[in-house]
Amino acid sequence: MKFDFDTYEFAALIAPGGVAVVVIGLVYPQLLHQADAAILIAAGLFVAYILGHLIAAVGNIAGPLFDLLPTPHLEAIVSTDWKNRGYVSAGQMDQLGKFTEDDANLRGINAHTRRERKIAVRQMYLRIMRAEHLKRLETFNGLYNLSRGLVIAFAFGLILSLIVRRYDASAFFGIAAVLAVFRTSKFSGIYATELAQQFLVAQMCSKQETNS
Questions:
Q1: How many CB atoms sit inside 10 A of residue 207's CB?
Q2: Residue 97: φ, ψ to 5°
Q3: Which of 50, 70, 158, 159 has the most beta carbons within 10 angstroms of its beta carbon?
Q4: Is 3 part of a structural domain of the chain?
Q5: Reported pTM
Q6: Contacts of 82 (CB under 8 A, 6+ apart)
Q7: Residue 113 lies in a domain
Q8: Helical packing angle, 135-163 and 167-211, nearest 10°
Q9: How confident is the model at residue 35 (pLDDT cuts 50, 70, 90)?
Q10: What is the structure's pLDDT at 1?
Q11: Residue span of the structural domain in which 164 resides
């Protein structure tokens, strides 16, 4: 794994994990008084990283729930609905339909099962990878994963603070969870639009190169 913020891979783990560490510290403040500051900071980063992985796993498991919220990933949506969501224009929808008709590997984006759509969307991603235009796409996908992780982390804080009757903290975590859902929805749409647009450009460029 690359420890840089260009892909948001590290941030998408540390930020949600850090929220979980803060939640635990609020509920069990005695844990903060059992070590000196340097050890506490190092241990906090390590625990945040571990918890970030666990939160990401919960986010993966809760994928169907996020599909019910206004935060679906592209493979959760049948391609005929992409125009309604603003991912492609009407003209681009016709182009997309032609590309999928001509390529059996892409026909799955119209399938009724998520598994088939996921494979087809992965094929689209690989076409973009071949065209070497992944940086923006990876950034938006990383921001989506970061926001989704924050939803899980703030929801964890809300539940735990309600259990211990810290209602002031509960209000904060509840508001933060709602805002994180909005951010997840935003980057879900941006990522889907970017992937669809880059795929169409890559396909048209490939077609021109073939015809030339």
A1: 12
A2: -60, -40
A3: 158
A4: no
A5: 0.77
A6: 88, 93, 96, 192, 196
A7: yes
A8: 160
A9: low
A10: 42
A11: 9-211
